[in-house]
Amino acid sequence: MGRVQGKVAFITGAGRGQGRSHALRLAEEGADVIAVDICEDIPTIGYPMASQEDLDETAKLVEKTGRRIVAVKADVREAAQLKAALDAGLAEFGKLDIVVAQAGVAAMKGKPAMQAWTDGINTNLIGTINAIQVALPHLGEGASIIATSSAAALMDAHSKPNPGGDPGGMGYMVSKRMIAEYVHYLATELAVRGIRANVIHPTNCNTDMLQSPPMYQSFRPDLENPTRADAEPVFAVQQAMRVPYVDPEDISNAVLWLASDESRFVTGMQLRVDAGGYLKWYDYHV
């Protein structure tokens, strides 16, 4: 028996990266999957989004584990699209046990600047809220909600050497911090119903978001067109452990634990998978 045997998971941003990794890890442990991704680019985001071919590949990989999947193109910014995707999955599987609100973008350096702010907030924060709230009517006792925030949410936001210079970048931090607060209060309301809600805060994760020109520019603002080779040595500044980033599978293992009954009394947690990054920013406190 797998650790989530017989459960059904609704996963956003499942076309590639962390979302695909989560879908595969949960499927390997016995879950069927309802997977969604936008499958089209967002003009203000300086790297390509997952494609329909990416989402199709996720479906093939899940099916190779022996589990079933319903994969639907949907934009998390649109609650109606998410509801339709979830309804398609419910028609196939008949229930819902796990929600993984994973979809997110990094809008730093995006142009027009305030549209980059809007697209980042709408995808990361509103998209997370949409995914969770279309799922809530279908969740019962024992269900688990997992939202992806970021180690960026835990960093000091008060140092703004260039106010207004990069609204998309600031919007990333703001959206991730507000996800953490939203889930904290949601977990309080759901606890008495036997439904758990937790947040995972990854540090740099080796995905297309990290390995992109806007992210390289954020880590090497001293260079006009930094490359991966220029930026990667600086990635390590985020972590206390001597690594430039973690891998999607490292986050998926945390998702699996929070989705499983092994964590049945864990709720309202802000779980850091950050290679000690938090330790560089804060003194000890309970």
Structural class, by secondary structure, is: alpha/beta
Tell me about the largest β-sheet: 7 strands, parallel
Q: What low-confidence regions span 5 or more consecutive residues with pLDDT below 50?
A: none
Widest sheet, order of strands: 3-2-1-4-5-6-7
DSSP E strands, number: 7
Which whole number gives the mean pLDDT?
Answer: 95
Specify the helix fraction band: 40-55%
Overall shape: it is globular
The name of the CATH architecture is 3-Layer(aba) Sandwich
Number of domains: 1
- Please count the helical segments: 8
What is the CATH H-level superfamily? NAD(P)-binding Rossmann-like Domain
Radius of gyration: 18 Å
Q: What is the class in the CATH system?
A: Alpha Beta
Summarize, please.
GO terms for molecular function: oxidoreductase activity, acting on the CH-OH group of donors, NAD or NADP as acceptor. The protein contains 8 helices and 7 strands, in the order E-H-E-H-E-H-E-H-E-H-E-H-H-H-E.
Q: How would you describe the overall organization of this protein?
A:
This protein has a single domain, classed as Rossmann fold, CATH 3.40.50.720. 40% of the residues lie in helices and 13% in strands. It has helices at residues 17-28, 52-64, 79-93, 113-135, 167-191, 213-219, 228-235, 248-259; strands spanning 8-12, 32-37, 69-73, 98-101, 144-148, 196-202, 270-273. α5 (167-191) links the parallel β5 and β6. α1 crosses α8 and α3 runs parallel beside α4 (113-135). The radius of gyration is 18 Å and the shape is globular. The model has no long low-confidence stretch (mean pLDDT 95).
